[in-house]
Amino acid sequence: MFVFTFDKKKGAKLAFISFFAVVAIALCVSIGLQQKDGIKTYATCDELGTYSTEAPDEEAQAQFLRTLGIKVEPKSISSDEITVPTVFDDIYNEYNELQTTIGLDLTPFKGQEVERVVFRLKNSDKTATLLIYKGHVVGGHISSGVYKDSYEPLGDAL
To answer: Is position 25 within any domain?
Structure first.
């Protein structure tokens, strides 16, 4: 025969510890759900809050840009494969800083091939470029298309 006794102080302490354990587990699960194969499935920036990075095809990629408030033509003007450098030089470090302003980061994709998709902005000579890895946006920028012209972060279009 078992007899259980309940000590209020120990019970309150156990409840307190259990509560924080559940919160910690929920936080870990939430963070884990935001990443798939090392890819952020959601990103966060001040202007938009949390948004999905999913963009598996041209239509979804154009919609992603529209979600950011960037008006683009519905069809991309080019698409190719590029390799993210394994070591970032000053230019790539600066470029990656642009990505972090909209909650993205190219660091996990060093050495990986990504798809570069370019859309023409409506009523503009500028273009919007997205870097796509396994159907998710991992980077991007707006530019005038002039070589060595500075890039604008996608977030500047907001």
So the answer is: no
**Where in the sequence is the domain holding 63, given as residue range(s)?**
33-157
| CB-based contacts of 112, cutoff 8 Å, min separation 6 | 83, 84, 133
pLDDT at 45: 85
pTM of this prediction exceeds 0.70: yes
Using CB atoms within 10 A of its CB, is residue 109 exposed (0-12), middle (13-18) or buried (19+)? buried
Whether residue 68 contacts residue 158, with contact meaning beta carbons closer than 8 Å, is answered with: yes
- What are 8-56's pLDDT values in tens digits? 555 544 444 434 433 334 333 344 334 455 688 999 988 878 999 999 9
- Which region holds residue 18: left if phi is over 0, alpha if psi is between -120 and 50, else beta? alpha
Per-residue pLDDT tens over the stretch 78-127: 999 999 999 999 999 999 999 999 999 999 999 999 999 999 999 999 99
How many folded domains does the chain comprise? 1
Distances (CA, A) of 8 to 5, 14, 17, 21: 10, 10, 14, 20
Residue 3 covered by a domain: no
In a domain, 67, yes or no: yes
